[in-house]
Structure formats: structure tokens, C-alpha cells
């Protein structure tokens, strides 16, 4: 008997509400394990100024959940605006909701939530620049990137990568290039003015220094549960990327280019995490954005017997990962002593 559960799930109008309920349940039942990394050092810029009351307890849980809900809504709108799927489906938003729900380390309010929202919002003007060198859209793309960098300065290293993407989209011109620089400098010009007025110029220079202050990370500080989560996300991302590379001829040219941009963006995130593993907790939601789109495309449009079996295997793996996250925190660290 031919299985067709992928078609039923991806085509159902109840998929997104059910996915939302599942994500909320996971948000509540999954324990919040401590992260062996501090978000209060100079690496995280203005994040250090947030009141500590927002970063713990039920307030932190509510803020992170609100950011997740907003990201899922924006993903649904991104799909509508760019027709990322050839069929009427909410699978991309549903996939993001489930992935956000199963990553327990993201259930406390962190810089990654702010970065995720700004970067996802930046996809709208970025994709709209396709074959349209528009300085205003270019300004918006880099302004959102610069605003996100206020809580994680090293994000500015994605600025040259965005120029490459705009060139690939045939949307880069001299005016767009100048507009991108003005957009990046604007938040820092405002921040610098406030720093001078409040006599915090030392913090401002420290923030700028963090853009180029790199140091090699230690994989040992990553709990093996988080390494397993990263490996699982990479598997989903690679699955979607390979499937799209094989069957991209079925999509329109604009859609193919957008998905190739997402593949390049996701590969850059994976490379960054591999080179700087101590930033995994900051960048993992960016990988989730690209993964939810690519794997959602695979799940929605690939209906073979092999793909059904493969998705069932991934479902079992997902349940195992959720079960592992329920383990006590001291069992999730490679450094724990017997």
C-alpha cells in the first residue's frame, strides 16, 4: 500500500494550528537546561543592558515564546509573498514551529531570538530586490542586519556575504552599495551619539572591538545534547538542499534563485558554527530558518516511497532527541564526572 501521509499533512489546513499546539506543549514540558556560556560579556553588545528580570523564570519563557510565535507568522507571510512552494501549504511555518519547539535550549530569552527576528524580517526586502537594484530595499536589508548586530556585533561579517547575495540576485549597483554602508553606519552613529551623551564611550569602543575579536572555540564546552541537536539540524538542512538541487527544474527561475540563496546562507551559518562553536546558542535559530524552508520544501513536494520511509526514520530520531532533552542537566555534558 502506498503511503501518502506527507501529502495529507502538508496539504491540510489544520497542520499549522496542530504544529503550534505541539510547539507550545514542547515549550512547556521540555526542561530548560543551563547553557555553559554567558551572554553578558562584551560579545553581546547592548544585550547586557537588559534587566535581569527579563532573562529568567516565566518572563523569559513568555518572551521567547512570543518571539517564536512572531517568527512563525513572519515565515507564513514570507511564503505568501514569494510563493516558496508550488502548492497551497503552510508547511514552512509549521516546520519552523515544530523545530523551535523541540530545541529546548531556545526556550529561554536569549540574543538569538532578537537576531532571528531581524534576520527573518530582512528576507522580505532581500528577496524583493530580485532583478531590481533598489537602494531603498538595499538600505532596509543592511539596516536590519546592523540593528541585529547591536546585540551580537560579529553579525556585521555577513555584510560582504549579503553583497554577494545581492549580486547573485542581480540587484547590486553602486547606489545600493552606498545605501548599504549608510544603513550599517546609521545605528552605530545613533549608538555613538548616545554613548557620548551618557559618558559611555568606553563601552562603545569595546562594542566595535568585538567585531574583529575572534578566538578559537572549544567543542568540549558544547554539551553532547546540543551537538546532537546541531547534527540533526544539519541533516535536515542537507536533505532539503540536496533534494532541491536535484528537482529544482520544477520550480520557477525566481524561486530557484531564492532557494539557492537560502542554501548559501545556511552553509555560511554552518561554517560559522563549526569555526566558532561557542556561538552555537546564538546562531542556531538562523540555521533553523533556512532548514525549515528547505526541509519543508522537501516534505511538501517529495512523495516517493523512499521519502516516506526516510521521514519516518527522522520522526523516530526526533522522538529520541526529545527524550534525551528530558534527561537531567548533569547527564547532558561531556564534562560530567562519573
Index terms:
mainly alpha, 13 helices, globular, 338 residues
Write the layout of secondary structure elements.
Blueprint: H1 5-11, H2 15-29, H3 57-82, H4 91-102, H5 111-128, H6 135-149, H7 159-168, H8 174-197, H9 201-209, H10 224-247, H11 253-275, H12 280-301, H13 305-325
Helix pairs in contact: 2-4, 3-4, 3-5, 4-12, 5-6, 5-12, 6-8, 8-9, 10-11, 10-12, 10-13, 11-12
Task: Describe the overall structure.
The chain has 338 residues and is mostly helical. The chain has 13 helices and no strands. Helix 3 packs antiparallel against helix 4, helix 3 packs parallel to helix 5 and helix 10 runs antiparallel to helix 11. The chain is globular and about 65 Å long. 38% of the residues are buried.
SSE pattern, N- to C-terminal: HHHHHHHHHHHHH
Tell me the number of strands.
0
The largest sheet is: none
Unreliable residue runs:
334-338
Bin the helical content.
55-70%
Oligomer: single chain
Assign an overall shape: globular
Structural class: mainly alpha
Please indicate the percent range of residues in DSSP E strands (runs of 2 or more).
under 5%
Amino acid at each position: 500500500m502506498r503511503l501518502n501521509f506527507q501529502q495529507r499533512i502538508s496539504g491540510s489546513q489544520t497542520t499549522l494550528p496542530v504544529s503550534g499546539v505541539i510547539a507550545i506543549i514542547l515549550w512547556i514540558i521540555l526542561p530548560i537546561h543551563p547553557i555553559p556560556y554567558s551572554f553578558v560579556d562584551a560579545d553581546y553588545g547592548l544585550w547586557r543592558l537588559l534587566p535581569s528580570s527579563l532573562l529568567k523564570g516565566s518572563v523569559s519563557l513568555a518572551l521567547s515564546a512570543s518571539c517564536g510565535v512572531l517568527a512563525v507568522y513572519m515565515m507564513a507571510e514570507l511564503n505568501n509573498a514569494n510563493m516558496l512552494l508550488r502548492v497551497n501549504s503552510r508547511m514552512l511555518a509549521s516546520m519552523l514551529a515544530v523545530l523551535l519547539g523541540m530545541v529546548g535550549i531556545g526556550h529561554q530569552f536569549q540574543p538569538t531570538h532578537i537576531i532571528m527576528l531581524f534576520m527573518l524580517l530582512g528576507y522580505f526586502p532581500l528577496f524583493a530586490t530580485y532583478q531590481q537594484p533598489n537602494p531603498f530595499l538595499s538600505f532596509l536589508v543592511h539596516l536590519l542586519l546592523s540593528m541585529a548586530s547591536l546585540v551580537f556585533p560579529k553579525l556585521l561579517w555577513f555584510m560582504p556575504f549579503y553583497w554577494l547575495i545581492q549580486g547573485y540576485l542581480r540587484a547590486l549597483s553602486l547606489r545600493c552599495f552606498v545605501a548599504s554602508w549608510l544603513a550599517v553606519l546609521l545605528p552605530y552613529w545613533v549608538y555613538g551619539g548616545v554613548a557620548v551623551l551618557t559618558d559611555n564611550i568606553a563601552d562603545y569602543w569595546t562594542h566595535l572591538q568585538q567585531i574583529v575579536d575572534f578566538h578559537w572555540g572549544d567543542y568540549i564546552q558544547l554539551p553532547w545534547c546540543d551537538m546532537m541537536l546541531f547534527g540533526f539540524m544539519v541533516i535536515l538542512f542537507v536533505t532539503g538542499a540536496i533534494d532541491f538541487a536535484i528537482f529544482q527544474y520544477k520550480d520557477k527561475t525566481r524561486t530557484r534563485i531564492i532557494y539557492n540563496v537560502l542554501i548559501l546562507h545556511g552553509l555560511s551559518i554552518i561554517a560559522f558554527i563549526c569555526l566558532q562553536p561557542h556561538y552555537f546558542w546564538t546562531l542556531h535559530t538562523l540555521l533553523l530558518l533556512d532548514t525549515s524552508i528547505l526541509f519543508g520544501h522537501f516534505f511538501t513536494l517529495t512523495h516517493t516511497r523512499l521519502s516516506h520511509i526516510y521521514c519516518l526514520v527522522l520522526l523516530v530520531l526526533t522522538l529520541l532527541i526529545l527524550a534525551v532533552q528530558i534527561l537531567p542537566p548533569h547527564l547532558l555534558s561531556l564534562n560530567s564526572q562519573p
